[in-house]
Write a structure and sequence with these properties.
heterotrimer, A alpha+beta, B mainly alpha, C mainly beta, B: mainly alpha, about 40% helix, elongated, C: mainly beta, Porin, 2 helices, about 5% helix, about 55% strand, disordered N terminus
């Protein structure tokens, strides 16, 4: 973590976390208070990363996955139970398109490879996907994956949840001006000290380092999903990392979708579901009553309330 | 004057009760908190404007209490 | 699946995904407090230039530098203050008609005020003092104000009482050691109708007693009691699509002199980019005349005013309408400094009166004003 004073009353900390670039910016308080708040937020982020990482074998998620098919249910804490409830709700509302058990598709999809997987490879994995088959007992907070090889992960919203938690920690520390940005998923603490909003750019989906639109936000959250984060391109066809759990193939239709919502968790989940819904994405976002911005396959930008 | 005030109260209550209003929840107040949304505004500009108008027009006041008079009116 | 009870009641306009996210604890900070003491100190300087003109009269020019300061003191207190120096040059016979030999007259007004505010979670309380001093007129005023917010912070009620006492000692000795005392009360409600709409209604009443006449005008004898009432309605609406704010206001005024007035204002606050904001504004004002106002005779001698009866020739008590247009440009230089420039043009004509005839025999009155301001935050 390398905090740097950006202007006398603004403090910016940048560090790598959850495989992305994290930025915390706070303003309107003296450097000591800001520093203490940023450190508390940073340790909260590391806590969430350690707890929900699927790469760390001792993480809770790894323990749940390791027990898949064994018939043994894993008891989870209240925080994890809340996240599983959210996943269940999202699964239902997206008609199965948002599924935290779809991570098994990574076994077939290697975005560093020269070719997409063969259809047989994907067909083999599809039976392992299905949140509706997961045995989640809310009242006893016990979860069991019914089949060996099944797995769940919180990659679909862990980063957004972490951004919201870090912001809550900063606000609790008395910091009311600034934001947390985890790799483009942004949660605000509040506007600048003089009440003016912060301004954010939306990443250009085809030109790294360029932006396509700017917007001003003083509160709430902003998240963007795009087909440019991880992908492979073969014969002019782009295969992005947002995979449809029903077909096993990537979402098409949108280069990127950005959503503004009070919580980063909601904004991030909505962008992913909208990407997966393809043509039906904008109608879904309208029903969810959130401002959004889309860039379609031809690179055409459309803003609705954002 | 009384009748006019009654009319005004009625007028003011319309937006408070009518149509599909959607009062903001705590996390939806970012825009309302912006400086240009505040009823007051630039304090010195307001003092100048009210002072000039009060010295050229019969009507004055309405936005606050505590201002004294001056020889200009 | 069994979701936990949402922290906030489910409401139609909130999407189901958002509600599911809100069910998770610890993501939203505790409900924000309604009254926040200011966090930053502010010092602002403003320079006003004003010049008016009316056919056949000398122009009045005003140069007025002013200073404003806001000082937060700890978590719950703030102190505000301002001071202005009004340098008036060029006498207008309309105001100084009986000052013998004074075709030009310079005057100086010094005014200042201070306000102490105490902030609690859902309320704020202020006490303020102000003083204005000219060589022939001194005014002192004090006020107490309070604001209360509803539990959801969407409604704020404000109440205030004030008192002012003015001492008048005109240079022409028409009267000596005259005073004017007034008591004011105000009550208002401000409500957030949507995330983009704020409306306010304020009712105020002032009861004054004492010397209200203009000592420098002939035939000026006004009642020693003047009661004034106002209703002010304001509506601010933010348009996100164009990043602009529409500010509308309407004020109704009536007083015991028989004057009724309507004021309507519209402002459009347009963000041009990250640092520049342009605000064009338009204001219309109209009033009826005071019961005892009489029109200046077109020619010949002044009419006979019976001794002791009320009368005034003051144009400000006549029936007229006025239009004012202006534009303000604000430049946020950085997070500490900002500058602004505002220009207005005002014209008053009897023919512009709404709801009735204007008073005859009055020439249009005009002024231009220019303000330059500089603000520093700490």
């Amino acid at each position: 973590m390398s905090p740097a004073a950006g202007g006398a009353e603004e403090l910016v900390a940048r560090f790598g976390l959850m495989a992305c670039q994290a930025e915390i910016r706070v303003a309107g308080v003296d450097a000591d208070a800001a520093q203490a708040g940023i450190e508390a937020a940073h340790s909260e982020l590391r806590r969430i990363e350690a707890k929900y990482s699927r790469y760390q074998s001792d993480s809770l998620v790894s323990r749940i996955n390791a027990a898949a098919g064994s018939g043994v249910a894993v008891t989870v804490d209240e925080e994890t139970a809340g996240l599983l409830d959210f996943a269940a709700s999202l699964h239902q509302q997206s008609e199965g398109l948002f599924d935290i058990s779809s991570g098994v598709l990574r076994r077939a999809w290697n975005f560093r490879a020269a070719q997409p997987p063969r259809p047989e490879q994907i067909a083999e994995l599809l039976p392992l996907i299905g949140w509706s088959r997961v045995d989640w007992n809310r009242s006893q907070r016990r979860i069991a994956l019914p089949q060996a090889g099944m797995e769940i992960d919180f990659g679909g919203f862990g980063k957004e949840y972490a951004a919201d938690r870090a912001a809550a920690v900063l606000v609790a520390a008395g910091l009311h001006h600034g934001y947390v940005n985890l790799g483009g998923d942004i949660r605000l603490l509040g506007p600048r000290p003089d009440g003016r909003p912060w301004s954010f750019g939306i990443q250009h989906p085809r030109q790294a380092g360029a932006t396509v639109a700017g917007l001003a936000l003083g509160s709430g959250a902003l998240a963007t999903s795009g087909d440019y984060e991880r992908y492979l391109e073969v014969d002019g066809r782009r295969y992005c990392h947002i995979l449809n759990p029903r077909t096993g193939w990537p979402a098409r239709c949108w280069q990127s979708v950005s959503v503004q919502a009070p919580l980063c968790l909601a904004a991030g989940a909505l962008t992913t579901v909208a990407m997966l819904m393809e043509e039906a994405g904008p109608a879904f976002l309208r029903r969810q009553n959130v401002p959004f911005l889309t860039i379609n396959e031809r690179g055409e930008l459309r803003r609705e309330g954002l | 004057m009384k009748r006019a005030l009654h009319g005004l109260l009625l007028l003011a209550s319309l937006p408070l009760s009518g149509c599909a209003l959607d009062p903001p929840l705590p996390w939806e107040k970012g825009i309302l908190a912006r400086p240009e949304m505040s009823m007051g505004g630039d304090p010195l500009e307001q003092r100048f404007t009210e002072h000039i108008h009060a010295s050229k027009e019969a009507a004055a006041g309405g936005s606050g209490v505590g201002g004294g008079g001056c020889g200009c009116n | 699946m069994a979701a936990t009870k949402p922290k906030y009641p489910a409401r139609e306009p909130r999407g189901s995904v958002l509600l599911a996210a809100l069910a998770l604890p610890g993501l939203l900070p505790a409900v924000a407090v309604a009254e926040n003491a200011p966090e930053q100190a502010v010092v602002a300087y403003k320079q006003l230039y004003y010049q008016d003109s009316q056919a056949g009269l000398d122009r009045i020019t005003v140069h007025a530098p002013s200073l404003y300061g806001l000082l937060p003191m700890g978590e719950h207190w703030s102190l505000e203050g301002s001071a202005v120096l009004d340098a008036v040059s060029g006498a207008s016979p309309r105001y100084y008609s009986s000052v013998s030999g004074a075709s030009h007259m310079d005057d100086l007004r010094v005014a200042g005020d201070a306000k102490l505010t105490y902030y609690r979670e859902r309320s704020a309380y202020s006490v303020s003092l102000s003083r204005s001093q000219e060589h022939d007129y001194i005014s002192n005023a004090a006020a107490l104000e309070a604001r209360f917010s509803s539990d959801d912070n969407n409604t704020t009620y404000n109440f205030g009482i004030g008192a002012a006492r003015d001492a008048i000692n005109p240079t022409n000795d028409v009267v000596e050691d005259e005073t004017k005392t007034s008591l004011q009360g105000i009550a208002g409600v401000t409500r957030a109708l949507t995330a983009h709409d704020l409306v306010q209604l304020q009712l105020s009443y002032s009861s004054g007693h004492g010397y209200f006449s203009d000592p420098y005008k002939l035939f000026d004898n006004r009642p020693r009691q003047r009661d004034q009432g106002t209703a002010l309605l304001r509506w601010n609406h933010h348009l996100q699509a164009v990043d602009a704010t529409l500010r509308l206001s309407y004020r109704y005024y009536a007083d015991s002199y028989g004057i009724g007035a309507h004021t309507a204002g519209i402002e459009w606050v347009q963000a041009l980019n990250d640092v520049l904001t342009l605000t064009p504004s338009l204001r219309y004002y109209t009033q009826s005349s005071a019961d005892f106002y009489f029109d200046p005779p077109a020619s010949g001698p002044f009419p006979n005013v019976p001794e002791g009866s009320y009368s005034s020739l003051d144009q400000r008590l006549s029936a007229f309408g006025a239009l004012e247009g202006g534009a303000k440009l604000e430049w946020r230089i950085d997070s500490k400094w900002s500058a602004d420039l505002k220009a207005s043009y005002y014209q008053q004509r009897s023919a512009w009166r709404l709801l009735g005839e204007g008073s005859p025999g009055l020439d249009p009155f005009r002024y231009v004003s220019v303000e330059f301001g500089l603000t520093r935050r700490f």
